[in-house]
């Protein structure tokens, strides 16, 4: 199993990034690919988890070890697969998810795509009191910092469109995205920042 890959980011898309190491480009599925946008062409580290099933072998990656540990905890819950875990982690605040689990806040948890009341209850039953090792790693790895862009309105529209595509790939519905998109159109943000603000709106 791969613990991490150190290499250069060569491609960023709505669902994955490609990181090159020694002439090999690894396709890595990640909660928010655009968090790596400012690192394109620059050497960086992605903490990875290899997921193997009968019909698929996939590599998942995260900017911090904390997120990787949380991903492993989430996919151990009945009813949550890798895609569902990515949608939860895309929210970008593992501590808020952990707090919701510890406080048995089902209303917060069911706002994630694919998480109904039964799955939210299962998350609480399986994970409450068992996430101390995730919290212990908080802050040990510095997430990739966002790079503020200063470009044209066309670039901003493109960034917002990329954010909507990434959220759609995570499982958010067209209805949900159409509700929040108009509220973001006048902002000048990076794709990563659009995604984070969108998730904050979707979770309220």
UniProtKB/TrEMBL annotation:
Q: Name one GO cellular component term.
A: Holliday junction helicase complex
**Per its UniProt record, what SUPFAM superfamilies does this chain match?**
DNA helicase RuvA subunit, C-terminal domain, Nucleic acid-binding proteins, RuvA domain 2-like
Q: Start and end of every Helix-hairpin-helix DNA-binding motif class domain?
A: 72-91, 107-126
Q: Which CDD domains would you find in this protein's record?
A: UBA_RuvA_C
Residue ranges of coiled coil: none
Give the region (Domain III) as residue ranges: 155-204
Pfam families documented for this protein:
HHH_5, RuvA_C, RuvA_N
A single Gene Ontology MF term assigned here is:
ATP binding
**Keywords of this protein's UniProt record, alphabetized?**
Cytoplasm, DNA damage, DNA recombination, DNA repair, DNA-binding, Hydrolase
Subcellular localization is given as:
Cytoplasm
The answer to whether the entry has keyword Phosphoprotein is no
Mind listing the GO biological process terms from this record?
A: DNA recombination; DNA repair
Instruction: Note what the entry says on domains.
Output: Has three domains with a flexible linker between the domains II and III and assumes an 'L' shape. Domain III is highly mobile and contacts RuvB.
Q: What does this protein do?
A: The RuvA-RuvB-RuvC complex processes Holliday junction (HJ) DNA during genetic recombination and DNA repair, while the RuvA-RuvB complex plays an important role in the rescue of blocked DNA replication forks via replication fork reversal (RFR). RuvA specifically binds to HJ cruciform DNA, conferring on it an open structure. The RuvB hexamer acts as an ATP-dependent pump, pulling dsDNA into and through the RuvAB complex. HJ branch migration allows RuvC to scan DNA until it finds its consensus sequence, where it cleaves and resolves the cruciform DNA.
Q: How does it assemble?
A: Homotetramer. Forms an RuvA(8)-RuvB(12)-Holliday junction (HJ) complex. HJ DNA is sandwiched between 2 RuvA tetramers; dsDNA enters through RuvA and exits via RuvB. An RuvB hexamer assembles on each DNA strand where it exits the tetramer. Each RuvB hexamer is contacted by two RuvA subunits (via domain III) on 2 adjacent RuvB subunits; this complex drives branch migration. In the full resolvosome a probable DNA-RuvA(4)-RuvB(12)-RuvC(2) complex forms which resolves the HJ.
Give the family, as the similarity comment puts it.
Belongs to the RuvA family.
- UniProt name for this protein: Holliday junction branch migration complex subunit RuvA
């Amino acid at each position: 199993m791969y613990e991490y890959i150190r290499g250069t980011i060569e491609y960023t898309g709505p669902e994955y990034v490609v990181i090159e190491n020694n002439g090999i480009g690894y396709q890595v599925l990640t909660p928010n690919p655009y968090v790596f946008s400012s690192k394109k062409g620059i050497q960086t580290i992605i903490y990875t988890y290899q997921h193997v099933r009968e019909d698929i072998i996939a590599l998942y990656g995260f900017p911090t070890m904390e997120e990787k540990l949380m991903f492993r905890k989430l996919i151990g819950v009945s009813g949550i697969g890798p895609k569902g875990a990515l949608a939860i982690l895309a929210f970008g605040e593992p501590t808020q998810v952990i707090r919701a689990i510890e406080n048995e806040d089902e209303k917060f948890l069911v706002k994630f795509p694919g998480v109904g009341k039964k799955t939210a209850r299962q998350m609480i039953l399986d994970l409450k009191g068992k996430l101390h090792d995730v919290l212990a790693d908080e802050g040990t790895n510095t997430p990739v910092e966002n790079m503020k862009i200063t470009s044209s309105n066309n670039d901003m529209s493109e960034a917002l469109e990329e954010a909507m595509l990434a959220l759609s790939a995570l499982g958010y519905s067209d209805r949900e995205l159409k509700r929040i998109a108009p509220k973001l159109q006048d902002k000048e943000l990076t794709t990563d920042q659009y995604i984070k603000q969108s998730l904050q709106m979707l979770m309220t």
